[in-house]
Each structure stands twice: as C-alpha cells, then as structure tokens.
Write a structure and sequence with these properties.
Layout lengths: L3 H4 L3 H11 L17 H17 L5 H8 L10 H25 L9 H10 L4 H25 L3 H29 L4 H32 L4 H20 L11
Helix pairs in contact: 2-5, 3-5, 3-9, 4-5, 5-8, 7-8, 7-9, 7-10, 8-10, 9-10
Bound molecules: fe (ii) ion (FE2) (2 copies).
The site of one fe (ii) ion has 5 residues, from α5 and α8.
Length: 254
C-alpha cells in the first residue's frame, strides 16, 4: 500500500496550521454586550442552544484512536495533530455556547437522547463511519446556526453564530478530505453504496433536526422548504468535495 506521506505532500499539514492559528478567539466576541433575550426569544431558542452546546462537546478519544490506527492516513504525521486541534475547535464551540447559556441563566444539559444516539452511531465502526456521522451533523449545523443568528436581537448570539459558521464551513472541507481519502482505495460501486447510505442518514437526520429545532427556524423566518433546500444544497456540496478529495484546495466553503 502506498504511503500517504509519499503520495501526497502532507495534505493535513495545512489543516493543522489552520486549526492552530484559529485557536483562542472567543475573547474577541462581544461578551460585554448587555442585551438579554426576551421571553419570546428564550422560548424559541433556549432548548436548541442547550442541545447544540451538548452536541458540540466531544472528547474525541475514539475518533483519535481510529485515526491513529488507520493504515493509510496515519502514515501522514500531520493527520492526528490536525484531528486533535479540530476536536479542540469543536470543544471551543461548546464552551462559547455554554458561556452564553450561563449568561442568560439557562441551565446546561448533561444528556439528551438525540445526542446519545449520535455518540453511539459514531462508535459503531471505524474512522469513516465516525467522520461520516459527525459531518452529517455539521452539514445540518450550518442552516441551524444561520437561523439562530437571525432568530433574536442579541448581538452576542449573532457574533457567536457567525464565528461558529465560519469554522463549520471549513470543517466540511476538512472532513471531506478525510472521508474522501479513506474511500479512495474502494471500488466505484462501493463508493456509490457509501454515498447512498450517507444520503439516507443525512435525510433522516435532517427531518429529525427540523422536528427538534423548527422554533428557531420559524423565529428567523425560515419555512421547511427553505431549510430542506439549503441543507440539501450543502450536502450535495459535501458529496462533491468527498468525491474530489484529492483536489480539495480551499480552506473555506465560499
Ligand atoms: Fe462545531
Ligand atoms: Fe464542526
């Protein structure tokens, strides 16, 4: 088997540098802003922020263990360091949302059945399954944070959402690179089956997310059609990136 380190000039080195340079920016958010969510706003967004704060938190030990033992990707010495910093960035999202919840006197959740399902799904199989389940949630996080950004009058919540959206857009490219390289040795047919399974998971999760968080979308003026079309468009973009993982050059999803 060809070593990734010799066949590609360390595609994860740039990601490691990107995540490293992106660290510790939560202080730049307008925490001093005095806006407090109104009762109506709280009813629309509090439960959803609680769920996302919980979902963004992961120690990632299983993910790192699978990555470190992958026969091809682990030969790139930048792969695991990039992954560790990626997980730290997700933990930072959870910390920021947690600080916002504390500020609004909204209790943090310690568990939720939907979060538990996703954690169990990620543990089912190897690196590809782990990354696929995670990126499915990340695709859907994009329309969610776009709606949350516009759902209230809070400048702080808006700035938090803009910051997370910027990170998540990059995460799609990063995850597409990982999944695409994992799938590269597979036959065309096997890759097609993987894509179909992923599409099924995506559509089921998208329906569940709307059912759980439609109050946020409605508060931002979104209807189901807009949500479905936007989420589907982002998923199609992800699949395109996965298929062309070797030529993923952009850090951003523009
Ligand atoms: Fe995140
Ligand atoms: Fe992410």
């Amino acid at each position: 088997m060809t070593s990734l380190a010799t066949s590609i000039s360390s595609p994860f080195q740039r990601w490691r540098d990107h995540f490293f340079e992106n660290r510790d920016r939560s202080g730049a958010l307008p925490w001093h802003d005095s806006y407090q969510l109104t009762g109506t706003e709280l009813r629309a967004v509090a439960r959803s922020i609680q769920q996302f704060q919980l979902g963004e938190w992961a120690r990632g030990r299983g993910f790192v263990r699978r990555a470190a033992s992958h026969p091809v990707l682990a030969t790139d010495s930048w792969f695991v360091p990039a992954l560790r910093l990626f997980i730290e960035e997700e933990q930072e999202h959870s910390s920021i949302l947690g600080r916002f919840l504390d500020r609004e006197h909204i209790p943090r959740l310690t568990n939720h059945w939907l979060d538990e399902i996703f954690r169990r799904l990620r543990k089912l199989a190897g690196l590809e399954a782990c990354a696929t389940v995670l990126v499915t949630a990340e695709v859907l996080a994009i329309p969610f944070y776009q709606a949350l950004r516009d759902a209230t009058g809070s400048p702080l919540l808006r700035a938090i959402c803009v910051r997370i959206l910027c990170d998540e857009a990059a995460h799609l490219n990063y995850q597409a690179l990982t999944i695409g390289l994992v799938r590269r040795p597979l036959s065309e047919r096997a890759r097609t089956v993987r894509s179909l399974c992923h599409a099924t998971l995506f559509h089921a999760t998208a329906l569940l997310l709307w059912q759980q968080h439609r109050a946020v979308f409605r508060a931002a003026g979104w209807d189901f059609r807009r949500y479905w079309n936007d989420a589907g468009g982002t998923f199609a973009f992800l699949q395109f990136r996965i298929e062309r993982a070797d030529s993923v050059d952009d850090l951003r999803l523009d």
